[in-house]
Write a structure and sequence with these properties.
It is a single chain. With 261 residues, the protein is α+β, with helices and mostly antiparallel strands. Helix content is 44%, strand content 20%.
C-alpha cells in the first residue's frame, strides 16, 4: 500500500479490497491467506477479513486453504469493456488477419504497467497460459506492451522504467532498464515491436499500434507465433506488412466511428 498522503475523501478499505483482488493473476490463480497478506502488505487478520468478505459477495472461492477468484469478478470490468468501441471495430480486422496469416491475433490496451486483452481471435493454443479477454501480462515483456509504453510521453516512459520490476520471465527477458529504454526508442521509431521468447519460451510476438481519430496510440494489435515454426526474419518480412495493413484499417474505421458516450 502507498504511504503517500491521501485526499480527505480517500477510502483506504476500498483500496485494500481491490488490492486483494489484484493479487490474483495468471501466475498466481490460487493463493493462501499468508500469500495474500504478504503480496498486499496486510496483516493476516486483515487479509482474512477481506478474503472472507469477497467470498460472501461471490467474487472469491476457497477450499479452506487456497483462495481463488470466481467468474463474477468479470462484472467489475464488464461496464468498461461493454462501452469500449475498440473491440467491435477491431474484431473483423483481426479475423481477416488471422485468416490470412493462420496465426493468432489479439488487441490490448495499457492498464498501469500491464497490458489487458480486449479482443482476441485465436487459431491454436501456443502458450501454457490460456489467453482470453481480460487477461493481463506485464507490459515490459510483451510486444503489445512495448508498443504502448514506447508511445507514451517521454516522462511517462521514464516513470515506467523507474518503477517497473523487470523480472526474468525466461532466460531471454530484458531485465535492464537501460536495455529496455533502448528497445522502446527503437519501437517508437520503427513503428512496431518484436518480442522473441521473453514472456514464454517458444513464443514470438509482433505488435503494431492502433491510433484514435486524434492520432494518439490507444491500443496495440499483435500476431503470435511459435518459435519452432516462424523465425524473427519471417515475422518481419512476411507477417509485418499484413499486421500493419490491419492496424491501418482499424485506424481508418476509428476515425469515422463515433465515440461511445
Amino acid at each position: 500500500m502507498s504511504d503517500q498522503p491521501r485526499e480527505p475523501h480517500y477510502v483506504q478499505s476500498l483500496e485494500r479490497g481491490l488490492a486483494v483482488i489484484r493479487a490474483f493473476d495468471a501466475r498466481h490463480p490460487e493463493l493462501t491467506l499468508s500469500e495474500v497478506a504478504r503480496i498486499c502488505d496486510l496483516t493476516r487478520a486483515a487479509a482474512r477479513r477481506f478474503l472472507l468478505t469477497l467470498t460472501d459477495l461471490g467474487y472469491v472461492r476457497t477450499d479452506g486453504r487456497l483462495f481463488s477468484l470466481t467468474p463474477r469478478v468479470l462484472e467489475l470490468g464488464y461496464s468498461f469493456l461493454a462501452g469500449l468501441s475498440l473491440p467491435e471495430v477491431a474484431e473483423p480486422h483481426l479475423e481477416r488477419l488471422v485468416a490470412e496469416v493462420h496465426e493468432s491475433s489479439s488487441m490490448s490496451v495499457l492498464d498501469g504497467d500491464d497490458v489487458v486483452y480486449v479482443a482476441r481471435v485465436p487459431t491454436r493454443r501456443i502458450m501454457t497460459v490460456a489467453i482470453n479477454v481480460g487477461t493481463r501480462f506485464p507490459a515490459y515483456a510483451t510486444s503489445m506492451g512495448r508498443v504502448l509504453v514506447a508511445n507514451l510521453p517521454d516522462d511517462h516512459v521514464e516513470a515506467f522504467l523507474a518503477r517497473v520490476a523487470l523480472e526474468p520471465l525466461t532466460r531471454r527477458t530484458v531485465t535492464s532498464a537501460e536495455s529496455l529504454r533502448t528497445e522502446l526508442k527503437r519501437v517508437r521509431e520503427q513503428g512496431y515491436a518484436i518480442v522473441d521468447q521473453e514472456l514464454e519460451e517458444g513464443l514470438r510476438s509482433m505488435a503494431a499500434p492502433v491510433h484514435d481519430r486524434t492520432g494518439a496510440v490507444v491500443a496495440a494489435v499483435n500476431v503470435s507465433v511459435h518459435a519452432s515454426r516462424t523465425s524473427v526474419g519471417l515475422l518481419r518480412d512476411t507477417l509485418l506488412p499484413r499486421l500493419l495493413a490491419a492496424t491501418t484499417a482499424i485506424d481508418a474505421d476509428l476515425r469515422v466511428t463515433a465515440p461511445r458516450r
